[in-house]
């Protein structure tokens, strides 16, 4: 999910400016602008401030019309646990999750390749 695009979508839906959103969140206008333009990665506390400004939950924030299913309980739990981490801990957690996803993709590609090789034989 593109968090910046989601923030911009919500801001436009509520018909408020970046300046107004920044005031509601207690952050600078440039923070909101950088976030929307993809030049800043938000931390959980900032996302919570944005959710509070729009009077929505974290689940609502990450739920979009294009999602067929809501986030499952484990993903919601992960967000709530992650919000209590320090910035460096959160980065390590993200790196760890990315490595698991990469390993899964690699394994799936290897299995697919083996199936193709079996069919050729």
Largest sheet data = none
Q: Give me the CATH superfamily of the domain at 1-67.
A: lambda repressor-like DNA-binding domains
Give Rg in angstroms: 19 Å
Question: Percent of residues in helical segments?
Answer: over 70%
**Unreliable segments of 5+ consecutive residues:** none
Written as H for each helix and E for each strand, in order along the chain, the element string is HHHHHHH
| CATH top level label of the domain at 1-67 | Mainly Alpha
Query: What's the N-to-C terminus distance?
Result: 41 Å
- How many alpha or pi helices? 7
Judging by the overall fold, what is the CATH architecture of the domain at 1-67?
Answer: Orthogonal Bundle
Q: Give the helix/strand class.
A: mainly alpha
Account of the 3D structure:
With 121 residues, this protein is mainly alpha-helical. The chain has a domain at 1-67: lambda repressor-like DNA-binding domains (434 Repressor (Amino-terminal Domain), Orthogonal Bundle). The protein is built from 7 helices and no strands. It has helices at 3-13, 18-25, 29-36, 44-54, 58-62, 73-82, 87-120. Helix 1 (3-13) crosses helix 3 (29-36) and helix 2 packs across helix 3 (29-36). The longest helix has 34 residues, at 87-120. The protein is elongated and about 65 Å long.
SSE order and pairing:
Elements (H helix, E strand, L loop, with lengths): L2 H11 L4 H8 L3 H8 L7 H11 L3 H5 L10 H10 L4 H34 L1
């Amino acid at each position: 999910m593109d968090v910046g695009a989601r923030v911009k979508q919500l801001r436009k839906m509520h018909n408020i400016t970046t300046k107004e959103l920044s005031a509601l969140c207690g952050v600078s206008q440039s923070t909101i602008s950088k976030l929307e333009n993809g030049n800043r990665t938000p931390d959980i506390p900032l996302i919570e401030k944005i959710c509070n400004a729009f009077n929505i939950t974290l689940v609502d924030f990450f739920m979009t019309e294009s999602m067929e299913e809501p986030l499952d309980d484990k993903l919601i739990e992960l967000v709530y646990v992650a919000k209590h981490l320090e910035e460096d801990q959160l980065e390590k957690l993200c790196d760890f999750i990315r490595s698991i996803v990469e390993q899964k993709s690699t394994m799936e590609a290897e299995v697919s390749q083996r199936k193709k090789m079996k069919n050729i034989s």
